[in-house]
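Students often ask why we bother encoding 3D structure as a string. The short answer is that it lets us treat folding as translation between two languages. Here is a chain of 67 residues written in the first language.
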Amino acid sequence: MWWDHIFGTFHYDPDSPPMAYGVTDEVPQSFVMQQILPLVWIWRDVKAGTSRFFARLRPVRSLDAAD
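And here it is in the second language, the structure alphabet:
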């Protein structure tokens, strides 16, 4: 909450309380795993992005090309 006050993102409306908090993804119980999880998400995104990038670099073979 302090960070919200510092950065100006704090919002409190007693007439309209939030319906839900947090994230919808499964969060590990272990503190260490909670710290590692964002790095895993980043790694998956990077891995998928590099796979798509290198897939574009592969030469396209023509179907009627004789070998």
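Translate back mentally: The mean pLDDT is 84. Keep this in mind for the problem set.
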